[in-house]
Design brief:
Helix 6 crosses helix 7, helix 6 crosses helix 12 and helix 6 packs across helix 14. Helices cover about 40% and strands about 20% of the residues. It has 2 domains: about 210 residues, no CATH class; about 140 residues, NAD(P)-binding Rossmann-like Domain (Rossmann fold, 3-Layer(aba) Sandwich). The protein has about 400 residues and is an alpha/beta fold. It contains 14 helices and 16 strands.
Amino acid sequence: MSNLNSLKKAGEAIYDRSIAMPISKIYQVTAPHFTKSREREAKGRILSLSNFRNDRDVVQCGYTRSTLPNVFYWLRAWDKETFLKIAGLGVHTDDLYNPREQAYKDGQEYAVEAISANSNYDVVNFGAMTKRLFSKKALAELRQKFPETIFTIGDSYTVQILKEDVLRELSNIKGRANSDVNVLVTGASGFLGEQSVSFLVEAGYNVIGLCTDTERAAKIAKTYSVSTTTDKSKISNIDAIVACTHAYESRLTMEFLRKITRNKTVMRVIDPAEPSAFSRKEYAKCKGNVVRIDAGNAHSQNLEKFGEVIIGKALGLPKRQIWACFAEAMILARHKDDERVRAMNWMKVSPESLSLIAELAEGVFSQPPVPSSFGEERRGARYKTPFTPYRPMRPAQT
């Protein structure tokens, strides 16, 4: 097995450096030239800030951790009225958990650099981990410096799409009342996690929340009358998981899923986390015992991405789809002159922001018509055999 894993890693390294890296470099050079007219003619322009999700991202883009640029521009997407450009900041996901780290401060500087260089853009979207970069005070200073810019984290529309994705997938569990379906929400005390707990409870499902902080776990339990825990070993008899965090301690593995899956049940993993909470490697180990779906992607018939085939594959985005946080930014850019849009604080989610984004998205973006997993549509996919019941290894006899 170790030899097989070594061969797989060697194959990934060859692909990353021989194929993905050259393609990425070509994309970065050609995209500005071939999308210039789209950018110029757009009625609304969006700058979406992002970061390197993992080490493979770094390699595939042609860099090392020590040679990351301050800012580099890659994905371009547009519809009939708006144009979106992603500015990748030279920071890694792992660097953005601690505000005291130098890389965190670097990320703030790179973000301001990117926004300043694109000051004619109407909307700035904080994507991936960049939404952690600015405190309330720092954000107020940013707004003062760029008073005409609409800032958003894109979570209002993400919540709407996530809810639709989760409830659609859970509806495939037949023969049981919602109250008899056990749904584990990881990262339950985080923003998306708490929102998921809320709409699952409202729909009548039996919710178990996995948190990393005891006090916050207790608060979620009291607020929504659900079971919560910080101990993964206490979880069992689960039918589905909504994975709302990619934090290391909450990432999903085949072994963990095998331990917690209800007997004779095919586990469903609904994964809105970015990077994914349930990696391709762990998913492959499950050999059909788990159904995984992407969640939080938005669909539009008018959406186009430069280098659709290549970039869609690399990012795990099917054709005509983009992350819902980016879709929210495109919706806001369409309505940049609407007084309701300009008056709303899009850096947090409220009943008012949820209501308004739902209204503005009508006829522009929607839930993807077909579920996907790692960007591949799951059209007609069949659920396979469930896990065999988990039996711990017996201790060796002495």
